[in-house]
Amino acid sequence: MSGLQDYVTQRLAGERQILLMTHLIVGYPSLDANRAMLSIMAANDVDLIELQMPFTEPVADGPTFVRANQESLATGLKADDYFDFLAEAGGVCAFPRLFMGYYNTAFRIGHKRFCERLAEAGAVGYILPDLPLEEYGDLAGESETRQLESILLMTPTNTTQRLQQLGDRARGFVYAVARKGVTGQATQFESGLYGFLDRCRAATDLPLALGFGLRTGEDLATLQGRVEIGIVGSALLNAWEEGGEAAYGALVEELAAARN
């Protein structure tokens, strides 16, 4: 059992029926705003977080995140700023931090240095949604050397054979994509989704995390017993944009309360 898998299992051994994983885009709307977001998450004992490295062409992201990525880059945020903030976040929140971004970052920095920088900043792993399993090369070995988890995605369009290939290679937990398309759109919890989750379960014994469209505490509560982790991103960003820190805090509190 990996460190991250063990962490999820231990957190679920208490009163929580599901864990909450949040998301923020580093540098948007500002690093100071990010710090306020982290403080709110820490106060509500969020379970995990993915911190996104802004990228020019975030292919898995919907309109809200695409705009946020572009605006973060427009402020001049660089890779060094990202890794500095990733390390700083560890002083604010005790829960595991994951790099989320696109393969261009790892390729440009180099696999070894990419993993070194993540480990130095205290990250537990990374999510690279545009990197096919077959293209990992020595990134897999560099990750294992530094005990970093590479979180793989399972999608509704994957064949049974592909899901099994992903399940055989996955570590930590599996990121199950709730529907076709990009992040930020509403997700309907219906029989098709639950059938997809059953297919994921058949392919792996790892915890399942569901993302792409979760918005409310009710969404999270509905998923209890279906997945181990619910991932909320766009809804949090929308709350900040629409109501600032107060609205953001209210939504995090609502989500946190829905775990039990």
Descriptive notes:
This protein has 260 residues and is of the alpha/beta class. It has a single domain, classed as TIM Barrel, CATH 3.20.20. Helix content is 48%, strand content 14%. The chain contains eleven helices and nine strands. The chain has helices at residues 3-12, 31-43, 63-74, 79-89, 103-109, 111-121, 139-145, 160-169, 191-203, 217-222, 234-257; strands at residues 19-25, 48-52, 97-100, 125-127, 149-150, 152-154, 174-177, 208-211, 229-232. A nine-stranded parallel beta sheet has the order 5-4-3-2-1-9-8-7-6. Helix 9 (191-203) links the parallel strand 7 (174-177) and strand 8 (208-211). The radius of gyration is 17 Å and the shape is globular. The two termini are 25 Å apart. The model is unreliable at 181-185 (pLDDT under 50).
Subunit organisation of the chains: single chain
Terminal-residue CA separation: 25 Å
Helix content: 40-55%
Broad shape = globular
Class in CATH?
Answer: Alpha Beta
Q: Compute the average pLDDT.
A: 91
- By DSSP, the count of extended strands is 9
List segments where confidence is low: pLDDT < 50 over at least 5 consecutive residues: 181-185
CATH T-level topology: TIM Barrel
Count helical runs. Answer: 11
Q: Indicate how many domains the architecture comprises.
A: 1
**Structural class by sheet pairing and helices:** alpha/beta
